[in-house]
TrEMBL record:
<keyword id="KW-0963">Cytoplasm</keyword>
<dbReference type="GO" id="GO:0003743">
    <property type="term" value="F:translation initiation factor activity"/>
</dbReference>
<keyword id="KW-0396">Initiation factor</keyword>
<dbReference type="GO" id="GO:0033290">
    <property type="term" value="C:eukaryotic 48S preinitiation complex"/>
</dbReference>
<dbReference type="InterPro" id="IPR001680">
    <property type="entry name" value="WD40_rpt"/>
</dbReference>
<dbReference type="GO" id="GO:0016282">
    <property type="term" value="C:eukaryotic 43S preinitiation complex"/>
</dbReference>
<comment type="subunit">
    <text>Component of the eukaryotic translation initiation factor 3 (eIF-3) complex.</text>
</comment>
<dbReference type="GO" id="GO:0001732">
    <property type="term" value="P:formation of cytoplasmic translation initiation complex"/>
</dbReference>
<feature type="repeat" description="WD">
    <location>
        <begin position="6"/>
        <end position="47"/>
    </location>
</feature>
<dbReference type="GO" id="GO:0003723">
    <property type="term" value="F:RNA binding"/>
</dbReference>
<feature type="repeat" description="WD">
    <location>
        <begin position="293"/>
        <end position="323"/>
    </location>
</feature>
<dbReference type="InterPro" id="IPR036322">
    <property type="entry name" value="WD40_repeat_dom_sf"/>
</dbReference>
<dbReference type="Pfam" id="PF24805">
    <property type="entry name" value="EIF3I"/>
</dbReference>
<keyword id="KW-0677">Repeat</keyword>
<comment type="similarity">
    <text>Belongs to the WD repeat STRAP family.</text>
</comment>
<protein>
    <recommendedName>
        <fullName>Eukaryotic translation initiation factor 3 subunit I</fullName>
    </recommendedName>
</protein>
<dbReference type="InterPro" id="IPR019775">
    <property type="entry name" value="WD40_repeat_CS"/>
</dbReference>
Length: 347
């Protein structure tokens, strides 16, 4: 496996994202810098400057035209990917912890923090995609979900953009309505269709599988789970011995990759192996750990998979991004024997 180490941040990483083609990798951290890299060689293409606080979340639309970021400076910004220009900024009363585009890039969701008497909320904004008037965006949200109970920490649209999936501070995974049949705004109980208590602690990451029929979660309760997006049934569980910060599913091989490690505040001068800062590979079906890949000397905070499955990237508390390109043997190996291999069309 060929790792490329990217050094462009001075503080811990918060999130990394590949674009649809996989040639670009975007990274955000607690140092208010938004970087974009060429994924094949690790060259930094540029930065997006403007935030005045830690940048918690980033997402890129399907056409690699627009970029959205959410920050601790209480702003959500939308950027022109090519020029680096900030096109519009939404201001809130509290920090923006999570942002995400819908499938065709016409809407953005964001989660704002619960602080200073303000309840946590999930908002959806409609995006004007006309290049001639990019800087003219709708200031008001088209949907607002206010959390009366446990606040949401992560969220994403489902495959058809008719629902929103959220992960919460108390371990809940919830499904919210997002179409014209339901009210545009309200408290979570009014718009929540169903939920499951998948975890017993904070849900740190929630990512859809390649076909968007399932999602993979990670949590501080040391578990990663594979969950059906329609029924919210837990299909598989991957237990570890350290808190997890991120999890991804490989698009073509039956593996789940999880990352985390000993809490940053508890890290001492002990070795990275004792802190368990490796990326850990689990067989998606058999729920068995198959490999570990070291590299970071602090907890892994975020993971992203290349759209083709040829590589994955990890961002750590150490401030580095590592892009790991898989060897050909990764795609040809049969660790359980040929009779136990899953046909490509069933993965």
């Amino acid at each position: 496996m060929r790792p490329i180490v990217l050094s462009g941040h001075t503080r811990p990483l918060n999130q990394i994202k590949f674009n649809r083609e996989g040639d670009l990798l975007f990274s955000v951290a607690k140092d208010n810098v938004v970087n974009v890299w060429f994924s094949h060689n690790g060259e930094r293409l540029g930065t997006y400057n403007g935030h005045n606080g830690a940048v918690w979340s980033v997402d890129i639309d399907m056409s690699s035209t627009l970029l959205v970021t959410g920050s601790a400076d209480n702003e959500m910004r939308i950027w022109d990917v090519r020029t680096g220009q900030c096109l519009y900024s939404w201001e809130f009363a509290t920090a923006v912890k999570c942002v995400a585009f819908n499938r065709n890039g016409t809407e953005i969701l964001c989660i704002t923090e619960e602080r200073m008497g303000h309840r946590g909320a999930l908002r959806v904004f409609r995006i004007n995609r006309d290049p001639a008037s990019w800087t003219q965006q709708e200031k008001e949200a088209i949907r607002t979900v206010t959390f009366s109970g446990s606040k949401a920490s992560v969220a994403t649209f489902d495959a058809l953009d008719r629902h929103i999936l959220t992960g919460h501070e108390n371990g809940k995974i919830a499904l919210y309505a997002h179409d014209s049949e339901y009210p545009e705004s309200g408290v979570d109980a009014e718009l929540e269709l169903q939920h499951t208590m998948a975890h017993s602690d904070l849900v740190t990451d929630l990512q859809l599988g390649w076909d968007k029929t399932y999602l993979i979660t990670s949590s501080k309760d040391k578990l990663s789970k594979l969950i059906d997006t329609n029924t919210l049934d837990v299909m598989k569980t991957y237990p570890t011995d350290t808190p997890l910060n991120s999890a991804i599913a490989h698009p073509t091989r039956p593996y789940v990759i999880v990352g985390g490690g000993q809490e940053a505040m508890s890290v001492t001068t002990t070795s990275s192996r004792q802190g368990k800062f490796e990326s850990r590979f689990w067989h998606k079906v058999f729920e068995e750990e198959t490999a570990r890949l070291p590299g970071h000397f602090g907890p892994i905070n975020t993971l992203a998979i290349h759209p083709t499955g040829n590589a994955y990237a990890s961002g750590g508390e150490d401030g580095y991004v590592r892009v790991n390109w898989f060897d050909p043997t990764f795609f040809t190996s049969k660790p359980y024997g040929g009779e136990f291999e899953i046909p490509d069309e069933d993965q």
